[in-house]
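Slack export, channel: ligand-projects

TW: morning all. Re-posting the request from yesterday since it got buried. We need the structure predicted with the small molecule present, not the apo form. The ligand is S-adenosylmethionine; the SMILES is in the block with the sequence. No rush, but it would help planning for next week.
GE: picking it up
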Amino acid sequence: MNLTPFKELIKQRCGLIFEGVGEKPLVDGLHKRIAANGAENATAYYAALHGNDLEFHELVCLLTINETYFYREPEQLQLLADCLVPRILARKQDAAPLRILSAGCSTGEEPYSIAMALREKYGESAARMFRLEGGDIDKGALEKARVGRYSEFSFRALEPALRERYFERHGKWAWNVRADLHEQVEFHHLNLLDKSTHHALPDYDIIFFRNVSIYFDTPTRRRIQQHLAALLKDDGCLIIGTAETLANDLGVLNLVEENGLFYFAKQPLAPRRPHFEVPVLPERRKTATDWLAPAPLPRPAVPERPAAPQSVAPSPANIDEALRLTREKHYEEALAIIVRLLEQQPVASDALLLKAHIQLHRKEYAAAEETAQRVLKSEAWSVDAFVVLALAAKWRNQNADAVKWFKQAVYARNECWPAHYYLGELYRADNELEKARRAYRVALQLLSGQPAPGDGLSIIPLGLPPTEVRFLCEHQIAKLDGLRAVAAQ
Ligand SMILES: C[S@@+](CC[C@H](N)C(=O)[O-])C[C@H]1O[C@@H](n2cnc3c(N)ncnc32)[C@H](O)[C@@H]1O
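GE: finished. pasting the full token output, ligand included:
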């Protein structure tokens, strides 16, 4: 089957992209709909699909990924209830309810979670203080959201006490959202790329747009963010899933950091846009270690990879030679060149990173960490340094530290698929299966890009083979899906 015209139509109309392993759901979905329509072949189905909105939505409902659960990323709900809402309320001139939209709400767990978090903070008056809405392209998912009935699996991250408070049992396996919470949330059909579905949705104070943008490419993300910006009030905020936030810093809205969490504001609010201190000498300044513990850091506004003011890159031939030797694991010879380079330029970060990489591979973990920290003093956002620190922790079984550093790596550069993959491995080892699944999926998504993706690292030759990692991600996701299906029974 020639998938290209279908891919183009779907991408153009709702943004979803299907590449590599992601093609399988498209092929399966097309087979189902071709059969359901009694179309002779794919070409005949394409002709029928083109002008038929109803059929297009039937197909899209087979292609969306509706993965969601209550109290996903609860820190962001806390940020909403404790920081954003009080600030908006303090500025408000009228008594109209504050409007919150969950864009890409799937089966409704997100908007109901927002409603719960606000009830927890503001009590019964939350019912008149807030107007909550959910929107999604998938009408089947919206129907479930409207019904508000959930199985155990949706509650995997929710405290039992909250379930008791806000849900009523329905039979042995299901729970219904309690009527007062149910009434507070309204659902709309919404295609984020199609402005004609936006007319019912103006003037939001806050929009949640979490775990949706991962299915789109950058130009589509930008278009969608422009649409979401148009739906926000002038002082409104957009909250994007933590792992996606930096990949959505596209210059449309202002990235703001608050208590280690990020969101976008239409206008810069207090606190202001994260300010990246390009590290300058000579007086005592924050080291990367000061900055990094314990909360994640704001990414540099510009530039992505600030040059160390005092470093002059060593001659490319020399660093290239050191890199070649490191790749070939001729560590002694590589180090001999690196030492010479560092004598000339003690803060040459590429040379330091190769040195740290070699120390790591020689199991000189403390030395590797020290060298990586030296890099962070002049390049506070060196993804390579974060990855060295993460691996040094991982290989010593210090999983919590390894997770922290890999997270820094993906904050600094979301394309760093090795960091996502390792996060998957670490979460899986800690039995955090949902997080593991998600990390593998991000790695897989990045690895499915065309052409074959870079790993986001500037110099260290990590040597992870993309094809095998892709295979491992698929394998782990399939296993985790199996576990989830068993748990849901
Ligand atoms: C993985 S779910 C995210 C659910 C929830 N926001 C969360 O974080 O748990 C992604 C949702 O985005 C929806 N979606 C995908 N493309 C969309 C589009 N163009 N417009 C609106 N919703 C879309 C899908 O139907 C799906 O339900």
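GE: first-pass observations. The domain at 74-265 is CATH 3.40.50.150 (Rossmann fold). Residues 1 and 198 are 34 Å apart (CA to CA).
TW: perfect, thank you
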